[in-house]
Design brief:
The protein has about 650 residues and is an alpha+beta fold. It is built from 11 helices and 33 strands. It has 4 domains: about 160 residues, Tetratricopeptide repeat domain (Serine Threonine Protein Phosphatase 5, Tetratricopeptide repeat), CATH 1.25.40; about 280 residues, 6 Propeller (Neuraminidase), CATH 2.120.10.30; about 90 residues, Immunoglobulin-like; about 120 residues, 2-Layer Sandwich (60s Ribosomal Protein L30, Chain: A).
Length: about 650
């Protein structure tokens, strides 16, 4: 590693293709005006370069103007390269870093490190390793040597990762992206809504000034924007989201979005950086509030969050004590009082001695994407995939090139069906400092084949066809535990939820004054991804209507109620107890497998089993006017399919006075 050949020395820094030119009147005898201008620019640039924290972007403005007058000054080329490797546009550093060395002047001691960074950004890994080797031979500080060794390992990883190219990375175009920075794309799980952060000027007609930029880094304030997917597959012109999400002369940065698009999480700089949330209320949003509970701290930085599909587990980023590196990923469970509980570090299976950031938990409930500077990163942050299996995280896998680059690659999100991902990145063919890209696998494959149902629905009155409010409750039928609940507004947006495979789900929809509606999704055996879109019509409580119990279960060819049926029957009891004058007929139905007479007897026995449960639970037997079995004679779906047969096996309550 430290063996320096004569060829390496020549190739890296000693070849002079042109002479170093200082900013003196002797070198510019006929350009006195230009020289004065260049020196003025150098002085202003140096004020930011040496005197201002994070002043490199401002210094660049002046240094580039000075470089127009004299492009052959080694120190100026070094400073421009230095500014670029500390900016969004790191890929622009290489020609300046290279030229600084070629001009033959004495340069700062870290020159070869800057050249290595610049070459690494251009995927010139062998040249970067040579530069790092040379720098390594010139320093003795242990921390510096460790840093250089890490860079060399990144280059070695990069050489391997760029050999495999499976994805197409597509810029979303100038409708979404601008000459400014756009980043942290957030998508509704069905890919209908895109929300992201941009540092563009709010008013293009106003000149850039101290009043329009942040004192933190002399860039425009962060604001949150929203776009929708049009019917032609294109994204609509984005709109700046309204107050209180955005504030004038303040940063507003979106960091996460619930899968249904109704809860937005934001980062605010209070208390060294905290996470806030806002709820969608029709066309407006609630005032952002700090997360309740123990996620946010006063002394430490909490910068990013992702919530599990059921809303009960938060994975977030913090630099609090107890971690493995600077920034780690932690998790917190939602408590019964709706506050977030004591955080737990995800441990060495996820976190490293380096920084982790940008976690995204997929709606399948087990696949986690995150960014890390550790593992086999090819430079800065790389995006990794891992999966939770039997309570343990699998070894994270680098997502590879071109998803990852030698720059920081963070904030990766993926659609529920696994077909498209979105990422903010800095690339040479982009529109500005950072752009938002869509990632698609070649040959129209999915990035990952997920096992889940994405269930979208709206609620309507069966008679009037008008949208109505309601509550959707989802239960794990094997445990009887509620896994999800959401209040649905009376509009076309309805609700959307994810049902990961491996469980049998009971879904109940309730609305005041209406019979509840139930659905059953048996996903114990994975069958890939499925999108279910449905308008759910609810009947008002009145004589003559039917209440179909889709989550009442019996073993095959038996009439003993399974324990999974209790949640549904208890819900029916609760509803009927609200209307003491209502009586019911209990009707049993089977599918068409087996003898007609046998199915008739089986349906009667199953209906009587339901009656027995109801009476034992306190329901007045006098309110049950009839128990009847219809066998296979009244199918809801005549198709001869697994799904149709499941729908036809049911118990119904027919309401009567």
């Amino acid at each position: 590693m430290k063996i320096l050949t004569t060829i390496a020395l020549i190739s890296l820094s000693l070849v002079c293709f042109s002479q170093n030119v200082e900013f003196t009147k002797e070198n510019f005898p006929n350009k006195k005006k230009e020289l004065r201008f260049a020196k003025k620019c150098l002085k202003k640039g140096d004020a930011f370069f040496y005197g201002a924290t994070r002043g490199y972007n401002e210094a660049l403005f002046f240094y580039l103007d000075a470089n127009e007058v004299n492009p052959n000054n080694a120190l100026l080329n070094y400073k421009i390269a230095y500014c670029y490797v500390n900016s969004y546009e790191k890929y622009k550093a290489y020609p300046f870093a290279r030229k600084a060395g070629e001009l033959g002047a004495t340069l700062p001691k870290d020159y070869n490190y800057i050249l290595g960074l610049a070459a690494q950004q251009k995927l010139k890994f062998d040249e970067a390793i040579q530069a790092y080797d040379l720098f390594e031979s010139q320093v003795s500080n242990a921390d510096t040597l460790k840093m250089v060794a890490k860079r060399i390992e990144e280059c070695k990883s990069g050489k391997e990762l760029i050999q495999k190219d499976e994805y197409e990375v597509v810029n979303l175009g100038d409708v979404i992206n601008t000459p400014y920075a756009e980043y942290v794309p957030l998508i509704k799980a069905d890919e209908t809504v895109l929300i992201y952060t941009s540092r563009r000027p709010i008013d293009e007609t106003k000149k850039r000034s101290k009043r329009t930029v942040s004192n933190f880094d002399f860039d425009y304030y962060e604001n949150v924007y929203k776009s929708t997917h049009e019917s032609d597959g294109k994204w609509s012109k984005p709109t700046r989201m309204p107050m209180p999400l955005n504030q004038n002369k303040k940063h507003s940065a979106s960091v996460s979005l619930s899968l249904d698009g109704n809860t937005l999480y934001l980062y605010q700089s209070s208390n060294n950086g905290d996470i806030y949330y806002s709820k969608r209320e029709g066309e407006s949003w609630s005032t952002p509030k700090s997360l309740p509970g123990l996620i946010n701290t006063k002394k430490y930085n909490e910068s990013h969050i992702t919530i599990s599909y059921d809303g009960k587990t938060a994975y977030f980023v913090s630099d609090r004590p107890g971690g493995l590196g600077g920034k780690d990923i932690w998790k917190s469970e939602l408590q019964s009082d709706q506050t977030w509980g004591e955080p737990v570090n995800l441990g060495p299976g996820i976190n490293t001695p380096y920084d982790e950031d940008g976690p995204f938990m997929h709606p399948d409930g087990k696949t986690l994407y995150f960014s890390s500077k550790g593992y086999n990163s090819m430079g800065g942050y790389d995006i990794f995939e891992t999966e939770l299996k039997d309570g343990q995280w699998k070894t994270p896998v680098n997502m590879g090139y071109p998803i990852n680059s030698s720059d920081d690659d963070v904030f990766f999100v993926l659609t529920a069906d696994g077909k498209n991902a979105y990422l903010s990145s800095v690339k040479e063919n982009g529109y500005g400092k950072q752009d938002i890209y869509c990632i698609r696998p070649f040959e129209k494959k999915a990035i990952k084949d997920f096992q889940l149902v994405l269930f979208k629905g709206t609620l309507k009155d069966k008679e009037t066809d008008e949208y109505i409010k309601g509550v959707v409750n989802i239960t794990d039928n094997s445990t009887g535990q509620e896994v999800f609940e959401v209040e649905v507004q009376a509009n076309a947006d309805g609700f959307m939820t994810s049902l990961p495979s491996g469980k049998n789900y009971g879904i109940a929809v309730e609305s005041e004054g209406y019979l509840f509606h139930s659905e059953n999704f048996d996903l114990v055996i994975p069958e890939g991804f499925k999108l279910v879109e449905k308008v759910i019509y609810l009947d008002k409580v009145k004589p003559g209507v039917k209440l179909t119990l889709n989550n009442v279960f019996f073993d095959f060819d038996k009439y003993n109620l399974k324990s999974e049926s209790e949640a549904e029957l208890n819900r029916a009891l609760e509803l009927l107890n609200k209307y003491p004058n209502i009586k019911i007929e209990i009707a049993g139905h089977t599918d068409n497998i087996g003898d007609d007479a046998y199915n008739q007897r089986l349906s009667e026995r199953r209906a009587n089993a339901v009656k027995e449960y109801m009476v034992k639970a306190g329901f007045a037997e006098s309110r049950i006017i009839r128990v009847v079995g219809y066998g296979e004679s009244k199918p809801l779906d005549p198709a001869d399919t697994k799904e149709a047969r499941a729908k036809n096996r049911r118990v119904e309550f027919i309401l009567a006075e």
